[in-house]
């Protein structure tokens, strides 16, 4: 089948069929503003480890870049517009499924060790961390490994450290969630039981110390869960990372490997990381090839993707949800920012020392119109000093901040109203308007500020 490309604004072509040979895939790019659906006519096929149902139409979300792979051959039918669609026999799937088989064997050994009363180390399943540069297919590989494991009855924990894009929840978060079934092609990562820590920025360079602290808090929480659940411990983790792999980014990758006690590293920086972890016991570094179907994305595209991810949180992937608008008094909430606190005075420092701002200090934020269009996280913390060590309940999007209003009250002079001069009257409201995914009061009065913005059309 020859490669085709269709402009997003063009009329949708009629449904068409594509026959795939065994161990080949159909690569498809979906435009942002046109529907597409796929149907399996014959054979078997899967999208990132999740099998297509026979004969049923499957809607593909806008802006998706997918590869429909078949092991034994398949006939597909496409209905709708695509930016590109073409088959390819160049695929790393055989290597990926062999990697999955090795991980599955490790899970089985860990489960057997737990049943025989083995120690925590022997009963620990694979903790896989996937690293590599931007647009090397890390998120896709994570989805496949998770879906294949869930298909066999395991419940691995997915950990997402990529704050730039966010595959579990909105960007700016470090998060984790158990995967109990193959990842849904349409709905994506399940959100029934996510564990989310809010960093609040799209890059760790803004405050790397806070990024490290939040990774540590998430790892501690997961360790507590694993210690009381032998099955989850044996299933292990699959950890996705950001694409920043040089300088500070490389340092943070090494920190993530240590923090989450990763014992399998799947990566594209084989030489660099192998040298860095060779002195550490029980860490296997595996070099994997980059998929030829990976699409490169520029910074402008990534920024748009972040905006779409925030919109999806409030409106749903299919734009079928209706967020609720609410108003809250300033006095009923407290907003804090992590990091950027006041520097200690020189008089309080040792001789010759320079004052340095505490990167993890909690700073109260005055509510102002600068918050309009920003995203605030709702902390589960009971007290402000617990915010950095607490996960979050969800997010709100600020649509308006009403600080105070001025009005001219005309003067009554000799029975006549004079327009000027008048009296300047301040009507103080001090109310913040926001949208939330569900109605009702906020679950907490402690909110976390961020640099994440979204402008609703």
UniProtKB/TrEMBL annotation:
It comes from the Eukaryota. SUPFAM superfamilies: P-loop containing nucleoside triphosphate hydrolases (SSF52540). GO terms for cellular component: mRNA cleavage factor complex. GO terms for molecular function: ATP binding; polynucleotide 5'-hydroxyl-kinase activity. InterPro entries: Clp1, Clp1/Grc3, Clp1_C, Clp1_C_sf, Clp1_N, Clp1_N_sf, CLP1_P, P-loop_NTPase. Residues 1-11 have a biased composition (Low complexity). One of its GO terms (biological process) is mRNA 3'-end processing. Residues 132-316 form the Clp1 P-loop domain. ATP binds at residues 25, 65, 135-140. Keywords: ATP-binding, mRNA processing, Nucleotide-binding, Nucleus. It holds the Pfam family CLP1_P. Residues 19-110 form the Clp1 N-terminal domain. Its main location: nucleus. Residues 1-20 are annotated as: Disordered. Residues 321-408 form the Clp1 C-terminal domain. Required for endonucleolytic cleavage during polyadenylation-dependent pre-mRNA 3'-end formation. Belongs to the Clp1 family. Clp1 subfamily. PANTHER family: CLEAVAGE/POLYADENYLATION FACTOR IA SUBUNIT CLP1P, POLYRIBONUCLEOTIDE 5'-HYDROXYL-KINASE CLP1. This is Protein CLP1 homolog. It comes from Panicum miliaceum.
């Amino acid at each position: 089948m020859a490669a085709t490309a269709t402009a997003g604004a063009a009329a949708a072509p009629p449904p068409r069929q594509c026959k795939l040979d065994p161990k080949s895939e159909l690569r498809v790019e979906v435009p942002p503003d046109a529907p597409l659906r796929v149907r399996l006519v014959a054979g078997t096929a899967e999208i990132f480890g999740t099998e297509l149902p026979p004969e049923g139409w499957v809607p593909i979300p806008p802006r998706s870049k997918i590869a429909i792979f078949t092991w034994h051959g398949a006939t597909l039918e496409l209905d709708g517009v695509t930016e590109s669609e073409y088959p390819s026999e160049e695929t790393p799937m055989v290597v990926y499924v062999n990697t999955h088989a090795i991980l599955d064997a490790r899970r089985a050994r860990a489960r057997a060790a737990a049943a025989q009363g083995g120690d925590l180390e022997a009963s620990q399943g694979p903790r896989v961390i996937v690293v590599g540069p931007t647009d090397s297919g890390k998120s896709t590989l994570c989805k496949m490994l998770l879906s294949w494991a869930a298909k066999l009855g395991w419940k691995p924990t997915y950990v997402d450290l990529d704050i730039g894009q966010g595959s579990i929840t909105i960007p700016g978060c470090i998060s984790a969630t158990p995967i109990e079934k193959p990842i849904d092609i349409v709905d994506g990562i399940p959100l029934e039981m996510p564990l989310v820590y809010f960093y609040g920025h799209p890059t760790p360079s803004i405050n790397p110390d806070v990024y490290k602290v939040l990774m540590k808090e998430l790892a501690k929480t997961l360790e507590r869960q694993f210690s009381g659940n032998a099955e989850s411990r044996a299933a292990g983790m699959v950890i996705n990372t950001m694409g920043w792999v040089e300088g500070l980014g490389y340092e943070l990758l090494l920190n993530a490997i240590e923090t989450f006690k990763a014992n399998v590293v799947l990566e594209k920086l084989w030489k660099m990381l192998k040298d860095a972890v060779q002195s550490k016991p029980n860490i296997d570094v595996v070099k994997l090839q980059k998929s030829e179907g990976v699409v490169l994305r520029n910074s402008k595209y990534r920024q748009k993707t972040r905006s779409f991810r925030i919109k999806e949180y409030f409106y749903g992937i299919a734009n079928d949800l209706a967020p609720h608008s609410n108003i809250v008094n300033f006095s009923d909430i407290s907003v804090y920012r992590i990091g950027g606190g006041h520097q200690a005075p020189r008089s309080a420092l040792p001789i010759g020392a320079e004052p340095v701002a505490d990167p993890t200090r909690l700073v109260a934020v005055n509510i102002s119109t600068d918050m309009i269009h920003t995203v605030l996280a709702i902390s589960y913390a009971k007290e402000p000093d617990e915010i950095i060590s607490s996960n979050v309940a969800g997010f709100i999007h600020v649509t308006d901040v009403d600080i105070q209003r001025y009005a001219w009250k005309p003067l009554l002079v000799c029975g006549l109203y004079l327009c000027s001069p008048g009296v300047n009257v301040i009507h103080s409201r001090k109310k913040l308007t926001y949208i939330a995914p569900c109605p009702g009061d906020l679950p907490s009065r402690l909110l976390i500020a961020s640099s994440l913005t979204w402008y609703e059309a």
